[in-house]
Design goal:
It contains eleven helices and 19 strands. It is an alpha+beta fold. Helix 10 packs antiparallel against helix 11. Pfam families: Oxysterol_BP.
Length: 472
């Protein structure tokens, strides 16, 4: 019997949410670049070392075996409850902070850049849809929980070869809320949101409810797109082979044109025929369908003309009259926790256009938390970076660094020390009747949805890091 982790779905439930205004977001962020004389290469007052084109392809040490550790004694009292306050053994972690894990949304930034370059709004919507689907692809087979960010913790990432920079901050501890803001180094886009997933344990599985809204602004086209992530369900939490479903409807709205993309992340079904499948369509403001989107979030995404798609479906149904019944049974079967043995690849309809295909993972990925190449590089701390990064950056966390180096006892000790230090600081603030003050984000209103959102206030990349909290 293999006992598997539960808290890793905290990172799976990347329900990237919330957003900010197009005008306000770009103004407050791009004025940071002026501190560097308008340079678009570094966008900061100090030359950057974390925008290197060559990144590491492995971790210092392989992952520690979790097979001998039982979590049932912890979880059996939590059925039906929200899991944000449950403490899990460090062996179930992966050596990344949730702020770093959240940054993996940027792995496929080339899709945003492609959308910026397209003149046709329907093609832009297709590419944005591909980006939204690709953003959950790194969750496939990830079995480790990221470290919970400390209040005030930050993480920055600059990738000159991909043309973006990102800053994130843990803005709330109870409930845990992580805010992020990414922008093009060339001024083409702004991408932002905040994450606050709600998790519940149901005995055999854990379900993550997406909360909030993601916003992508294509500044050249004066367009803003918003969407929320699908539900994430992790099966076989207690024993058996761990497997993941993304399921539910995702709607992507273009606020300028009124175009909408509706994506259905399908439940697995009784016989596994719908495992990982995504299907949907793009319609204009008059509700006319312009294309059909289909594929798998673990593999690829395609688009095709609606008439071609319908003709193909009719032929498919003739060949398998039981398909519809199996789909209906599968959608209603919430107890199908056994991993389907057959995982079909996507059957490409003639005349389809490829929108996105997943990248191969490095050969040693299975021994290193199933990280992608992008994830493998997120905790790099190369010479010179210490002088540039904020002291609150996740790379400086001693517990994560120790775990990455294979020192599990040190990692556990440091994790407990940091958590106790955080509790003591919270008690001291309560004693003095002080409120926590965020540094780089503030709570405001999303001008597109009218909902509350954590908005980036600017200034991070001017490198003025005085009066930051000493959290490590």
């Amino acid at each position: 019997m293999i006992l598997v982790p539960v808290w890793f779905f905290w990172d799976f439930c990347l329900c990237l949410d919330s957003d900010e205004s197009c005008e306000g977001g770009s103004e407050s962020s791009f004025k940071d670049a002026l501190a560097d004389g308008g340079s678009q290469k570094n966008n900061g007052s100090v030359p950057q070392k974390n925008g290197m084109k060559k990144h590491r392809e492995s971790l210092p040490a392989p992952m520690f075996s979790r097979n001998s550790v039982s979590i049932w004694s912890i979880l059996k009292k939590c059925i039906g409850l929200e899991l944000s306050k449950i403490t899990m053994p460090i062996v179930f972690n992966e050596p990344l902070s949730f702020l770093q894990r959240m940054t993996e949304y940027m792995e496929h930034t080339y899709l945003i850049n492609r959308a910026c370059s397209l003149s046709d709004p329907m093609q832009r919507m297709q590419t944005v849809a591909a980006f939204a689907v690709s953003a959950v692809a790194s969750q496939w087979d990830r079995t480790g929980k990221p470290f919970n960010p400390l209040l005030g913790e930050t993480y920055e990432l600059i990738r000159e070869e991909q043309g973006f920079r990102l800053i994130s901050e843990q803005v709330s501890h109870h409930p845990p809320v992580s805010a992020f803001h990414a922008e093009s180094l060339g001024g083409d886009f702004v991408f932002h949101g905040s994450i606050y997933p709600k998790l519940k344990f149901w005995g055999k599985s854990v379900e993550a409810e997406p909360k909030g809204t993601i916003t992508l602004e294509l500044l050249k086209h004066n367009e803003a797109y918003t969407w929320s992530n699908p539900y994430c369900c992790v099966h076989n939490i207690i024993m058996g082979k761990l497997w993941i479903e993304q399921r539910g409807k995702v709607e992507i709205v273009n606020y300028r044109t009124g175009d909408k993309c509706v994506l259905n992340f399908k439940p697995c079904g009784m016989f596994g025929k719908e495992l990982h499948k995504v299907e949907g369509y793009i319609q204009d403001k008059s509700k006319k369908k312009h294309c059909i989107i289909y594929g798998k979030w673990t593999e690829c995404l395609w688009s095709v003309d609606p008439q071609v798609y319908e003709a193909h479906k009719k032929l498919e149904k003739k060949g398998d009259k039981t398909l519809k019944n199996e789909e209906n049974q599968g959608a209603e079967n919430d107890d199908a926790d056994d991993m389907p043995e057959v995982q079909e690849t996507v059957s490409v309809i003639p005349g389809s256009t490829l929108l996105w295909r997943i990248d191969s993972r490095p050969p040693q990925s299975a021994m290193m938390y199933n990280f992608t190449n992008f994830a493998m590089s997120l905790n790099e701390l190369d010479p010179g970076m210490e002088a540039v990064l904020a002291p609150t950056d996740s790379r400086f966390r001693p517990d994560i660094r120790a775990m990455e180096n294979g020192n599990m006892n040190e990692a556990s000790t440091e994790k407990e020390r940091l958590e106790e230090k955080q509790r003591a600081a919270r008690k001291e603030r309560a004693k003095n009747d002080e409120e926590w003050s965020t540094r780089w984000f503030k709570l405001g209103t999303n001008t597109h949805t009218g909902s509350q959102d954590w908005l980036y206030t600017g200034g991070y990349f001017s490198r003025n890091y005085q009066n930051l909290p000493e959290i490590y």
